[in-house]
Amino acid sequence: MSAIRGHFFGLLFITIRFPLLSFCSMINST
Length: 30
Prior knowledge:
By secondary structure, the protein is mostly helical. The longest helix is centred in the middle third of the chain and has 28 residues, at 2-29. It is rod-shaped and about 45 Å long. It has one helix at 2-29. Keywords: Membrane, Transmembrane, Transmembrane helix. The chain crosses the membrane at residues 6-27.
């Protein structure tokens, strides 16, 4: 159960971090 929760939070972290990273790169390119 703990491993599933950790995997879920890891996935959530990646899902939030990816758009944020592309957003930052978009600002830098401007």
